[in-house]
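## retry 2 of 3
previous attempt timed out at serialization; input unchanged, resubmitting
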Amino acid sequence: MALPSFLHHHGAPVPNSPFINAFCHHESLGGDAHSLWWPTRSKKLPDTILYFIPGNPGLVEFYIPFLSDIQEKHDSDTLAIFAHAHLGHTPGFPFSASHCGFDVQIENAVEAFDALVCEFPEAKVTVIAHSMGCWITLKLLERRSNAVHSVILMTPTIQHLADSPNGRMLSWVFNPLPRTIISSLAVLGRLIPTAVVKFFHGHWPEDQLPVLQKLIRSPQVLNACFTTAHDEMKMITEPMQELIDSHADRVRMYFADVDGWVGQNREVIVSRFKGPVDNIFLATNVPHAFCINHSKPAADQVVEWLSATL
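## retry succeeded, writing output
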């Protein structure tokens, strides 16, 4: 299976896998971002591409079941999917935690998008994102609106993040001293047996536990995630309402019914939305981190939206 020219193979190929493990080199930013590429089922050039931007932690491996389900369920055999991680958020892809601020992650996402559009200029690109990746997506839409076909924001944190229930409870953790201390303790994570991880995360699918284990055993990656989160708390304040209003027909939002990272902001965002009613979906019994064990219902809604817009 061929990769786009801006991606490079990473690791040995996985037999019968629908995606290719890769990375995207960002020369101007000085790092490599882990990436996953789902070629079209027909093996032809894509006429539609789903560009995925993760939340925080920005490990794209958490989203493999979700994105694979989308491609499997969608009618088109010329749909490709490109998932692109945040810099420094993936074990095995070193990047200085001190350079993992939110602005860097925005540039990281924009650069990857530009490479994608340059490679496939005729394809329609829908940007889909999770959590804080939705703020990055709106920044991307602001700068590349002519090249974006539509955006899908999954459990979006796009307004007053620090004032959400989880933001008020956890924002102190992301300050320099606490995050340095807590992330350094990740060396102890290497001593935690897999059986113990399974016991405390018994509701997690088997294929998600290795991703979690790699994360909690990597001090540098945890520090990078916390550094990005520190900036999120400061930067995600007033919503980009004018931008959303001007592209309301192209914006779709998927909300969890109970979401500690969105909280009371959901009602405000929904009440201000000027797009079609069908562009907002309120999920039942789906958490903020839908990708862990609620991928199928989330993928079903995304496929429905894609089918209606492509």
